[in-house]
Specification:
The chain is an alpha/beta fold. Helices cover 33% and strands 12% of the residues. Helix 1 crosses helix 2, helix 1 runs antiparallel to helix 10 and helix 2 runs parallel beside helix 8.
Length: 428
Amino acid sequence: MPKKPKARSHSNHRASRASRPTTPASSSQRTYTILDYRLERPRIELRQVRDGDTVRYEVSGDLSAPVPPIRESKYLGKQQCIEIYRWMLLNRKMEAALENLYKQGKVVGGVYFGLGQEGCSCASAYALEPDEWLGPLIRNQGSLLVRGFSPRDIMMQYMARAGSPTKGRDASSHFGDIQKRNVVAPISTLGDLIPVLAGVALGARLQGKNIAVMTYIGDGGQSTGVTYEGLNFAAVQNLGLVLFVENNLWGYSTPADMQFLIEDLAERAIAYGIPGVIVDGTDPCQVYDAAHEACERARRGEGPTLIEAKMMRMKGHAIHDAAEYVPKPLFEYWKKRDPIARFENFLVNVKKWLTPAEHEKLLAGVDAQLEADREFAVASPMPTPESAAGGTYCEEGCHEVKPKYGVPTVKSRKAPATLRAESAVHLK
């Protein structure tokens, strides 16, 4: 009989450590402090149980714990909070519309949802300046909205329509805009965006400007080798990378407790010598504050920051995945911590920044925009067959890549005379 796996808690309540050493307790020991913005530290355990030839998961712990309040932001005001809330609503309602379009057979490819992660996507991207850069992943559609893409852009993209950002050549989330919105397209090979965004920050610095660049990785994707290579490069070169590790508890059907032994993924910042921060990913104010401070560090030329956002992916890996492997009580626990419901209560009942009438007007405006964009996307034409022949590769004269921030400054060194005199060697 196989050995029963030991239950591990994804409560992450271990004493936190961080990337900057404090006064050593002894000559052979260093301690660290990790910033933790959370107002709750869940104490939940997930256990793998074998029944004959099948394996299932059981969850235990304090599943009836009260829902924590939204933490007051140190930087956001009334209007900014309302704007972020609207982006979150638009994000969720757009994904619901995409699910309906998929069921109607109008979506060509699959659909990847960020249900329960809207607060992280929208509030994080909101911290970037217009001339800074974003590299979203498949669940960060809210960040695309914040950066200027419309719901019709995203819906046309999934339906492979001619008016989509990729002109119908892709039926998923692989699109960006490097000309106006400063968005690098998602890369399916998880982790690869990290060195790409580090390179963007390096390019800006060579042009004389320190900027913040932001990208994301999941709890599963953070285990890839390129994640470490890219983050280590950013740390060594002191580049302004803001990396959100979205710990949504499941890497497809593998629980986070069976992916790594450390309690908090933010602890991995220690190995790079950079700050590590933990936030409740369902609290937009916590997410924004951590992102804002990380972006400010980047702009001062102080290097990268790793932010771990803890939350729950409330749907399967993609629309084809019913997530039957997730224990139902775990879904119920995180459903009570829905970021939109909590932020609505914060704005309407706690801060009273929105009256009930104003809230209804805001909802109606989001619905009207989404319906207009959905109708536009559905009525838009498919690409012509002959259009598939072009636009795949960069052709001569198709575009010119110009410096965005200034003329790159590179120190030139004169080669020694012995090297200049040598002829080229060709090896066969």
